[in-house]
Amino acid sequence: MCGVLILDVGTYWKFLRPLLNLTYPKFSGIIVVIVYILMTLGSLSASRQLHLNLLEGTLWCSMYFFESTPVGRLINLFSKDIDTIDFRIPRVIDLWLERAFDSLVIIMIVAYASPYFLIALSVLLIPYFFIQVNLNGNLKWFMKLYVC
Q1: d(CA 45, CA 94)
Q2: Phi, psi of 115 (to 5 degrees)
Q3: What mean pLDDT is reported for the chain?
Q4: Taking CA atoms, which of 8, 49, 55, 61 is between 20 and 30 Å from 85?
Q5: What angle do CA 94, 98, 102 make, to 5 degrees?
Q6: Which residue stretches of the chain are H helix?
């Protein structure tokens, strides 16, 4: 098998075993509880702040707004925004954090198995960030043209 690298699973397990013994039995439950408490408190704070700002902005509207806008539309406006803050955003943040940490662990394992991977990764990340910075500016400019 010339040129074929056979990976030994025992090598990876030898590297991962201390990490798993250190984190999972002792700290993972505590970390999960702390993360969900912080996410719940953050969600409650954001929901309260959004509701108060929405209520204050609505109460300062002119009487014409209240005469021309049905009550059901006002209630739907409040309930939709609160639903978004309470249910959708925490789920998206949770999934994003999970994927970010999964990617970080994968990069760490691959970097441990092949340190040359970090050189290739750094070479690939430099143009990637350059393209992202320029692409975001161009997209904003294009959207301004498209809307007008």
Answers
A1: 17
A2: -60, -25
A3: 76
A4: 61
A5: 170
A6: 9-23, 29-59, 63-68, 71-83, 89-113, 116-147
DSSP conformational letter for 62: -
Phi-psi region of 138 (alpha: psi -120 to 50; beta: other; left: phi over 0): alpha
What's the alpha-carbon Rg for the chain, to the nearest Å? 25
Each residue's pLDDT tens digit, 22-52: 555 566 677 777 877 888 888 788 778 888 8
Q: Where are the domains of the chain?
A: 27-113, 116-148
In 3-state terms, what secondary structure has residue 134? helix
Whole-angstrom distance, CA of residue 107 vs CA of residue 120: 12
Contacts of 46 (CB under 8 A, 6+ apart): 85, 89
115: left (phi over 0), alpha (psi -120 to 50) or beta: alpha
Distance between CA atoms of 91 and 95, rounded to whole angstroms? 6
Which is higher by pLDDT, 146 or 71?
71
Q: Please tell me the distance from the alpha carbon of residue 32 to that of residue 38, in angstroms, as a whole number.
A: 10
Amino acid at 41: L
